[in-house]
Design goal:
Elements: H1 3-6, E1 14-18, H2 22-34, E2 37-41, H3 48-52, E3 55-57, H4 64-73, E4 76-79, H5 86-92, H6 102-108, H7 111-120, E5 128-131, H8 134-139, E6 147-151, E7 161-164, H9 167-176, E8 182-186, E9 192-200, E10 206-208, E11 212-217, E12 220-226, H10 232-248, E13 253-262, E14 265-272, H11 282-285, H12 290-299, E15 311-318, E16 323-326, E17 329-332, H13 338-341, E18 346-350, E19 361-369, H14 372-385
Parallel strand pairs: 1-2, 1-4, 2-3
Antiparallel strand pairs: 5-8, 6-7, 6-8, 9-10, 9-11, 9-13, 11-12, 12-15, 13-14, 15-19, 16-17, 18-19
Helix pairs in contact: 2-12, 5-6
The structure holds adenosine-5'-diphosphate (ADP) and magnesium ion (MG).
Magnesium ion is lined by residues 258, 270.
Length: 391
C-alpha cells in the first residue's frame, strides 16, 4: 500500500459539513455522488443542505455536546461557512481530520488578520489601515481617502461596508458600526474583477479552475464570465498568487481568491476558505466541479481534472426577483421560471430556500457554449427575460 492510500477516506464513510447553506447543499450532492454519507450541522432548521443531508444537527456552532456527537460519527469534517468559529474547528480537530484548519479559516474570516497576512507575506494588496478607535481614523494616511470602511468580522455581500470620502464620514460610519474593529481600505479604481478558485490536497498539490471575471451589483456578485477576458500574463500571475496564498495558509480544500485589476495590476481583495459563488460555473462547465474537489481534498483522494469543457456565463438569482412592483404596492410572487426553461443551453440551480428577501441568493443559472460573445448574449437575454434590471 502506498503512503497516499493509507490516508484516504473512502465511501461509505460519513463526512461532516459545518454550515447548511447552498454551498453545503452542493457539497452534499457531490459527496453522495461519490458514495459518501454527509451529516450537516447548522442552527437553521430550514437550511438548504439539511434537506439532502443524511442527518441534520440543528445546533449552534458552539454547542459542544452536539459537536461531540457530530465528531463521533464523522470520518472527516469541513465547512462551507467562513464565520464558523475557528475554535470549533480546533475543537473538532482533536477527534477527526478537519480541513481547512481552524488557523487558515481564522485568517480568512477576519479582514484585519487577512490583510496583515497578505502584507506579511509580501502578497499584493491595496492600501489599508486597521481601525480600532476613532483615533486610528484621525491617524490614517490622507491618501487612503476616498475609502471603504469594512467591519473586520461577519461582513458579506457588501454588508458591513460604508463608502466614505473623508475622515468625518469615516468616524460617523465607525460609530454606526458600534465601534467594531474595522479596516479602512483605499477605494481603488477598478478595471475589472477576477477570481481564482483552486483546490489544494494534503500533499500540497494545487489545481486551479479557469479564472473567472466577476461583475458585482450593489456589492453582490451578479455575473461571472469564464474564461475571464484578461491577458494570459495576468491569468498566470493570479494563479501563482492564489496558489502561494493556499501554500502559506497550509490550506487543504477548495478556496476562492478574489482579485481587483486596477491600473492593469493585480490586487488581492480577499480569500474565502470554502467553495466560492464565482466558482458555481464549475458545476456545469468543468470535468470536476469545485464541490467534488472539496470532497476529494477532504478525503485525501487525488484531485480531479479542473478543465472547463465549455465557455460559461453564470448569473445569480437574488430574492429581489420575488418582489413585483404593481400599482398599489409591492407584491410577493414566484418568478416565472418557464422564461428560463426556454433556453436550451441554460442550467438552472435553485437552492430550495423557503423565503426570498431582497439581496438573498436564491439560485443561479449558467449558460454554456463554445463562443463567448454568443454565450454572453444568451445569458444577458435570459437575465432580462426573468426580470433582472440593468446591464
Ligand atoms: N477597496 C475597494 N475599492 C474598490 N471597490 C471595492 C473595494 N472593496 C470592495 N469593493 C467592491 O465591493 C465588492 C465587495 O467587497 P468585498 O470586500 O469583496 O466584500 P464581500 O465580503 O462582501 O464580498 C468588491 O467585489 C468590489 O466590487
Ligand atoms: Mg468579496
Amino acid at each position: 500500500m502506498n503512503a497516499m492510500s493509507t490516508t484516504m477516506i473512502l465511501p461509505p464513510a460519513t463526512l461532516g459539513m459545518l454550515g447548511g447553506g447552498q454551498l453545503g447543499g452542493f457539497f452534499v450532492a457531490a459527496a453522495h455522488e461519490l458514495g459518501y454519507q454527509v451529516w450537516v450541522l447548522d442552527p437553521d432548521k430550514n437550511s438548504p443542505a439539511a434537506r439532502s443531508a443524511d442527518r441534520h444537527f440543528c445546533a449552534d456552532y458552539d454547542d459542544f455536546a452536539a459537536l461531540d456527537e457530530f465528531a463521533a460519527g464523522c470520518a472527516a469534517i469541513t465547512t462551507e461557512f467562513e464565520n464558523v468559529p475557528a475554535a470549533t474547528l480546533d475543537y473538532l480537530a482533536k477527534f477527526v481530520p478537519v480541513r481547512p484548519s481552524g488557523s487558515a479559516v481564522a485568517i480568512c474570516q477576519n479582514r484585519i488578520a487577512e490583510k496583515s497576512f497578505l502584507r506579511d507575506h509580501g502578497l499584493s494588496h491595496g492600501p489599508f489601515a486597521v481601525i480600532r478607535s476613532a483615533e486610528d481614523i484621525n491617524n490614517a494616511a490622507p491618501t487612503l481617502f476616498p475609502a471603504i470602511l469594512k467591519v473586520a468580522r461577519f461582513g458579506y455581500d457588501g454588508k458591513g461596508q460604508a463608502t466614505v470620502v473623508n475622515r468625518e464620514e469615516a468616524i460617523t460610519a465607525f460609530a454606526r458600526f458600534k465601534g467594531e474593529a474595522c479596516v479602512l481600505e483605499k477605494r481603488l479604481a477598478l478595471d475589472y474583477e477576477i477570481s481564482v478558485i483552486l483546490a489544494r490536497d494534503q500533499d500540497g498539490r494545487v489545481c486551479c479552475f479557469p479564472t473567472g471575471e466577476n461583475q458585482h451589483t450593489r456589492g453582490i456578485l451578479d455575473v461571472s464570465i469564464v474564461p475571464a477576458r484578461t491577458s494570459d500574463n495576468l491569468r498566470r500571475e493570479a494563479e501563482v498568487l492564489a496558489a502561494r496564498i493556499a501554500e502559506k495558509l497550509d490550506y487543504i480544500g477548495t478556496m476562492g481568491v478574489e482579485f481587483f485589476v486596477s491600473g492593469g495590476q493585480l490586487v488581492i481583495n480577499e480569500m474565502a476558505p470554502r467553495p466560492h459563488n464565482s466558482g458555481h460555473y464549475t458545476l456545469d462547465a468543468c470535468v470536476t466541479n469545485q464541490f467534488e474537489q472539496q470532497v476529494r481534498a477532504l478525503c485525501g483522494l487525488p484531485l480531479g481534472e479542473p478543465r472547463a469543457h465549455s465557455v460559461a456565463v453564470m448569473v445569480n438569482l437574488l430574492g429581489d426577483l420575488w418582489f413585483e412592483q404593481r400599482a398599489g404596492g409591492e407584491h410577493y410572487r414566484e418568478p416565472d421560471w418557464s422564461t428560463l426553461y426556454a433556453f436550451p443551453d441554460l442550467k438552472l440551480h435553485m437552492y430550495g430556500k423557503h423565503h426570498a428577501r431582497p439581496g438573498r441568493k436564491m439560485g443561479h443559472f449558467t449558460v454554456l457554449g463554445s463562443d463567448m460573445s454568443s454565450v454572453l448574449e444568451t445569458a444577458l437575454a435570459a437575465r432580462r427575460a426573468i426580470g433582472i434590471e440593468g446591464e
